[in-house]
C-alpha cells in the first residue's frame, strides 16, 4: 500500500452511548491529505514538501495501525479519521472498513436487510453524535463575541416561553449553565423517527422551539449551577437561543456562517440522500445475527445535540478554524475574534469551557448514539495538534481511548500547528437587526416573539 497526498482537496460529495465489524471481510484503507501545494511521492513513503522531507512515513504507520486496530474489533464496521498538524495546518484523512454491509438485521423488527456492500472513502458521511454540539457551542459563541449576552445573563429574556426549574423558581438559568451542563434540565428519549419517517430536507418535522418547549419540563432536584448533569436538551436550548439572537433558523445559520465559509460542503443536520451516508450498526454477539442496522438512519427532536452528518475532512476544516482562534486558515475572516477564540477554552464551570470539555493540555468532545461513535480532541499546548474520528459502530470506552491516543501520538510526530494570530479579524456574522425567518415560527409569530 502506498499512501499519497492529494494536490488540493479531494472532491467531496456523547449523546446516549449504547458497536460492529465483520472480521472476515477484507478491509481497505486509504490515506488522503488536503494540501494546496505541489508534492511528489517517493518510494520510501516520504514526500518532498517545499524542499524538505515531510513525515508521510508516519501516515503510513498510523494507517496500518488503524487498519489493524479495526480488524481486531468486532464493533468497528467502518471508520474515518483526521489528523491536523504542521506549520501549514495540514489535514490528513485516513479511512478503513465498510460504510455499508451486505447483510445485517434491522434494529426495528429484526428483519433481514440486504444491501450492496460499500467501503468507507473520503466522501463517506457519518452522523457524529455529540460531537455535533461543538457546532452549537461555536454558533452560540459567535453571538457572545458580538455582544449578544454575558455568560451570567439569564436566558429567559430571549425566549418565547420561560425555562426554569420549578423547585428553584428564584434562580434563573444562565448561558454559562448551558455551556457547562449545570442547568439541571433532564433529557427525554422519546420522539425518535426512523428511515422514511424523517424529512429529507430538514432535521426533524417539529420546529425546534416547540421541541424545546416540551423538552424542558423535567428537571434534576438540584440547585441550577451547582452540579454538572449532561443535558442534550440543554444543547438544543442553546441552538434555539442562536435562532432568537440571530433571527435565523439554526441549521440555516450554521450553513451560512460556518459550513459555507469553511468549505464544509458535506455537512448538514439531516441524513444526506446522495448515497454518501454510512449505515449505523450494532454488534450483538449473536453468531447467527451478529449485526443490527438502523437501516436508513433516524432523527430525533433535540437534533442540534447529536444529528450532524459530516465527513472527517469537513470536521478537520472546522477544527482548523477552532484551534486557530476562530480565524480561517487564510485571509482575515473569522467566526469570532481572538479574545473569544481564547475564552472558549477557558474554564467557566467545573471541567467545561464554553461548551468544550477541558482536559490536561487540551479540549474536546466525544459522542455516541445508536450505531455511532465519535471523538474530537484538540491539544492546545505544544505540540499543538488535533485529531478526530467517527465510526459506524458502538465502541467501548477502551476502544475510544486507544483510537484517540494512537492518532494523537502520530499527529505529534508530524509537527505542531502555529499559535493563533492575536490581531483583530473580520467576523462573518455580526449582531445585525433580527430578520424574520418562517423556519422557526411559533404561535403565529416569527422573529419578534
Shape: globular
Largest sheet properties: 9 strands, mixed
Into which percentage range does the β-strand content fall?
15-25%
How helical, in percent, are the residues? 10-25%
Contiguous runs where pLDDT drops below 50 for at least 5 residues:
1-54
The average pLDDT score comes to: 86
Alpha-beta content class: alpha+beta
In DSSP terms (H or I, runs of 4 or more residues), the helix count works out at 9
Separation, N- and C-terminal Cα atoms = 59 Å
The total beta strand count reads: 22
Q: What is the CA-based Rg, rounded?
A: 21 Å
Question: Would you mind describing this structure in some detail?
Answer:
This protein has 449 residues and is α+β, with helices and mostly antiparallel strands. The protein has nine helices and 22 strands. The strands form six sheets. Strands 1, 2, 6, 7, 10, 18, 19, 20 and 21 form a nine-stranded mixed β-sheet that branches. The chain is globular and about 55 Å long.
